[in-house]
């Protein structure tokens, strides 16, 4: 589960300093704007990167600028996501901008902390241009974080003294809240040597949702609806809809599309044993979420019968008339029967790699 910035900061504020801010949506604009202090910064709330470069962060100095800025931000769409909420925050007296993150690093079964003295930049590009500027430390969750690890991470005596407690608190939040990613960019040191999380990205392991009822309020409406229907659904930033059965198969499908040069719009797992009606419901739910350029269906027939998947797809297409390319890969139980039903209506492929290449080719025509 990926959180909006304002949601992430509400979690971090338990242990860390965050700027004072208020959320503005289209319904509460008139009530909120009268309470703002100027100057302030307005931040479009979307779950995709590159917000600043897209013009989604604006500084305003008075009420006149505020009105124009709000109209501009609410009319924006950043990487396919419409701006429905705006975070208005106080300006920070910035002395230095840094980068800090913690992720769950699966290859070594460790947590990895990442630090850089250059904040507010694209960390991936910086890693290529200046690999020595980025410090990394792996933390064994059994041992926990120690001072020598923080020294190895910061590698600067003055910054170590300023950031020691911050790093410990950030690590504490990461572990206690069952996060899989915590990124603060920029991490700001003010002229008064106060450490503030100027921006924050948080991803939460929703398998741990039963332990953290406070996160339930952060679920997207689409995720809540999917849970009611019995699907596992996660919205992503692309435009190619993905439907499959089994989390591993859906993740492999997303990876294949990404490698082929496409961007996936979602993770949608219909589960095992899906009948035609369930497949039809899943497709209906999928196309209602956002404007898609294409759909890739990848189903392995084990408990699920491939002919039932085909039947559900045909029934949905007859009712809704899909005006976008659909690529289908079926294998396993009743796959031949299912493919026979679909061969005159949809693009059929025999492998996942071919399916990924074909859907990317079709949506880019």
Please provide a written account of the structure.
This protein has 365 residues and is α+β, with helices and mostly antiparallel strands. It folds into 3 domains: 20-90, ATP-grasp fold, A domain (Dna Ligase, domain 1); 94-209, ATP-grasp fold, B domain (D-amino Acid Aminotransferase, Chain A, domain 1, 2-Layer Sandwich), CATH 3.30.470.20; 229-363, Rossmann fold, CATH 3.40.50.261. It is built from 12 helices and 18 strands. The strands form 5 sheets. Strands 7, 8, 9, 10, 11 and 12 form a 6-stranded antiparallel β-sheet that branches. The mean pLDDT is 91. It is an enzyme of class 6 (ligase). Its cofactor is Mg(2+). Residues 8-213 form the ATP-grasp domain.
How big is the Rg?
23 Å
Helix content: 25-40%
Query: How large is the count of helical segments?
Result: 12
Beta strand %: 25-35%
